[in-house]
Amino acid sequence: AEMMQSLLRANVPQARAPYHPVNVQVLNLLQKEGYIRGFNVEGNRVNILLKYYQGAPTIRHIRVVSKPSRDIWVLPHELKFRTRFNTGTWIVQTP
């Protein structure tokens, strides 16, 4: 998510990010859900084709809820209380 936060600030059609298997998995999900146009891996970098709708990015807000220095543990039924108006897409990593 830190990778996507910096990309959203740059209002450009294409961006680059460091290669990491987790980044590629997240990008696959974002492409499948229609949030990005696509991506390709070139060596240790990933080129990301961002998607816009009527001049605005399709991803308007992204937030990191849990990270290695601050783990958050929730039960599945608690997720709906952690988002405003119960909308959006959650990317959840399980142990």
How would you describe what is shown here?
This protein has helices at about 1-10, 20-30, and strands at about 15-20, 35-40, 45-50, 50-55, 55. With about 100 residues, it is an alpha+beta fold. Strands 1-3-2 form a 3-stranded antiparallel sheet, covered by helices on one side. A two-stranded antiparallel ribbon has the order 4-5. The model has no long low-confidence stretch (mean pLDDT about 80).
Give me some keywords for this one:
95 residues; alpha+beta; three-stranded antiparallel β-sheet; 21% helix; 23% strand; globular
Itemize the secondary structure elements and their pairings.
Blueprint: H1 2-9, E1 14-18, H2 21-32, E2 36-42, E3 45-50, E4 52-53, E5 56-57
Antiparallel strand pairs: 1-3, 2-3, 4-5
Task: Describe the structure concisely for a colleague.
The chain contains two helices and five strands. It has helices at 2-9, 21-32, and strands spanning 14-18, 36-42, 45-50, 52-53, 56-57.
Strand content: 15-25%
SS elements, strand count: 5
Please tell me the overall pLDDT.
80
Structure annotation, total helices:
2
**Helix-strand string:** HEHEEEE
As residue ranges, the low-confidence spans are: none
Gap between N and C termini, in Å? 18 Å
